[in-house]
Structure formats: structure tokens, C-alpha cells
Amino acid sequence: MRKNGKERRAPSKNMKFEQFQKETGFRFTNERLLKQAFTHSSYVNEHRRKPYEDNERLEFLGDAVLELTVSQYLYKKYPLMSEGELTKLRAAIVCEPSLVRFAHFMSFGKLVLLGKGEELTGGRERPALLADVFEAFIGALYLDQGMDMVYKFLQLTVFPKIDEGAFSHVMDFKSQLQELVQRDGAGVIEYKIHQEKGPAHNKEFVSKVALNGETMGTGIGRSKKEAEQKAAEQALTNLKNIEKK
After folding, report:
1. Are 97 and 128 a contacting pair, CB within 8 Å?
2. Which single residue of 57, 78, 99, 123 has CA 20 to 30 Å from 215?
């Protein structure tokens, strides 16, 4: 394509990585690590004369770093959660579908270096490839900047999703609330369905949880169980805020 008599060229891969660093604020000391994080094996196979290295080793490292940092965050955020519940929640956060969503959020697909065949078959949007790239980037960031910078990156991409309740479907807030009340000898918990809304095929339930007759949390869900879980989550937040005062 020409514009004003000049051919318009697609931005080079170096320009893409420079723009990424500028926009995100994650600037690498060793930019070779950054490029390696986004280099698929198909690209290496087509450029054997140049010293390219694919991202598979970085993916291996990033997987371990991600598990550790997410584990640390969950351990501190949910002090009443059991080992089994923490493991279940972490698995939901670091599974492939979740990593793909995080990669999309960062527009990682645009940066991946692919071989022509992989490009033509839609590799840039392939879930497994994007999940691997996300882990590889974390591995590269860890090697270049250390754990603190990885934590900063996860505060932008992963931790907000945890705080927003994106993984609440695997969390048992009712058990946490029961444990907290029993630990402190605070009294009796009671759940009540306060309201049912909508047609039979698309009902919405409103649940309230009370401690010694005083409402501590309200939750809305597509099932009674979901509504009660959300009510318990709100009650936990309210009780912890009271403890801090």
C-alpha cells in the first residue's frame, strides 16, 4: 500500500517490542529475553541461520514463578482458606483458559513471532500458544527484573481479577465465614432467601446472611447456592473491616 507516493510498511518486530515497553512501563534491561518470550518454535525453525531461541524454557520457568506468586497472594488474601481450597483456587487462576484471557488483556497475540505456516493456520489466536506466551513473559520478566517486578505485573493483570470475584465459583466463602465465627465465638449464622426475581427459566435469587440476627451480607445469584456464597463473601469483608477498626 502506498500513501503520498511512499510505501507503507508494517512496523518491524523491534518497533513492536519498543512500543509495548513504552505503553506498559515494563522496560527490559536485556531485550533479548523479551523477544525470546514471544518467539514460537515455528519462527526459530524458519530462521535457523540467525541465533533465535524459542520461548519453551522461559515458559517452564514462568510457570513456576506464576504458581509461587499467585500462591503467596492467595495465602495473604484468604487467611481462613484451607490448603485444599487454596489449591483449587490457584488451579483455576493458572489454568489455560485464564492465562489466555490475561494474554488477550495484554494484547500478547500481536507480539508473537511465528513461522509462516503457524501464522496461516491461526496460531496467533491459538489458546495453548497464548497461555505459553503469558508464562514465558513472566519467566523473562523474572530473569530480567526479579520477583518484585513480576508481582507488579500481576497486580496489573491477574490480581484484580481475583479481587473482582472472577474465580468465586471455586471458592467456598460460607465455610470461611463459619470458621471465622466459630474461631471468635461470635454467635450464630443464618442464611435466608430474601427475594426471587425473574421467570422460572431465568431466576435470580437474593440471599442475606445474618449474625445473631443482624444482617452482615447480601448476595445475588442465578441459584440459591451462588447467592448465599456471595452474601457470605460480603459478610467476610464486613467482619474483617470491623476487626481492623
Report:
1. no
2. 78
- CATH fold label, 9-169: Ribonuclease iii, N-terminal Endonuclease Domain; Chain A (1.10.1520)
Q: Is the pTM of this model over 0.85?
A: no
Helix 83-94 with 96-105: angle, nearest 10 deg: 50
- CATH class given for the domain over 173-244: alpha beta
At 125-168, the pLDDT tens digits run: 899 999 999 999 999 999 999 999 999 999 999 999 988 878 87
Mutual orientation of helices 147-157 and 127-145 as an angle, nearest 10°? Answer: 140
Contacts of 175 (CB under 8 A, 6+ apart): 82, 85
Amino acid 141: pLDDT: 98
Catalytic residue ranges: 63, 135
